[in-house]
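Milestone M4 deliverable, item 7.
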Amino acid sequence: MTLEDIKSPFDGAVIGQVPVASLKDVDGYLSRAEVGAKLWRNTPAHVRSAIILKAATIAEENIEELAQIISGETGKSIVEARAEASRCGEIFRLSSFEGSQLYGSTLPLDANKGTGLDKLGFTLRQPVGIVVAISPFNYPGLLVLHKIGPALAVGNAVVLKPARTTPLTAFAIAKYLKEAGLPDGVLQVITGSGSVLGDALVSDPRVRKVSFTGSTVTGTHIASIAGAKKLSLELGSSCPVIVMDDADIEYAADAVALGGYINAGQVCISVQRVIVHEKVMANFLDALKPRVEAIKVGDPKSADTKVGTLISEAEAIRVEKSIATAVSEGATLLTGGARTGAIVMPAIVCGVNPKSAFAQDELFGPAIAVSSTTGITDAISIANDSPYGLGAGVFTKNMDNSIQAARELDAGSIHINWTPLWRADLMPYGGLKSSGIGKEGVRSTVNEMTEEKTIILHGRSW
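Output delivered:
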């Protein structure tokens, strides 16, 4: 295979090389995965668990190495990269535990009319076999581990296709697993063209499960060609946050200044739409603007940088143009929006039409769209007027508002008095509508990565 340079989006420096696979290589990866799947399925759960726990220890011993790799290939700040690297060991540990706890249930067959006590029924879970995991660029450690950790823990073989721009983190994680004793063929990392390799991998009948995180367009394409297999699709979003007139404005401004700009807004659960009650709009913007302007942007390796680059200059140009288009359509740029290379200054865009592309389309950049509302029912209607439904947040001191929002907002995760940019690795995570199919979160992923069989033992009456 030929080698491809991986470059820093901040300064273009080459930080590593990876082999580039072609279509003809796919069969070899899947053939090795077939062998690995058979071996790993027949490995006792306590042995699998011990290997994954050892990988957790190795990852925790190499947090700084992993953080430098993450920051280098994504352009995110080293502070954020260290936070991501420090969670990797914990996901290994959660996976090790949950993957060893594949409980079934007994079936009360004698409750079936005409059935006596001569039959016993129960359910049994087993690994699906071969899993294809396709991960995005924005969290190359965490979002890889949320797929491969549970998949490996329950006994599957995995072919991992990381984002082409950020494969080095995936190779580092695979190295830790290899050092921990993971057998050959159980985890393979394949790099190269997503459209070429991805189509071949997800459509192959030997693959029993596809786990994909990325755009709704690509996820829909995968669903159309995958065939009869299990799918988990974590797709696009345009997450809303509602700020009611009884909210703690300073607290809400603090939260939005974090939730809209971490990782340069390149997070599926970033705050994109802020729907503010008209009575407190001026106070909210007065509180938010200085907080956003105080965000230190620049060299990702600098200890005081809070927000680094977008993944590429092309993406930064796209975000810059989206902001300019919103302004040309009547919105107001309150602050930010200037671009230098792959860096876009954190932006607040006010007076945004909730039906405009700037509010409706996933931005994936460091800018928020602020619109006004007259009350909780109107705010929920605006929030739900989106093809997406991944996460939402509501700031209010009113219990009635909180319960109405919990009942009526169409989102996979709803945060009362915080933004959607909060996630515990153990909780279910996934969206409604065009935001995807299935759930991640380690325990949920264990279920997604296994299949359930019903067993009936037929005895003779005595």
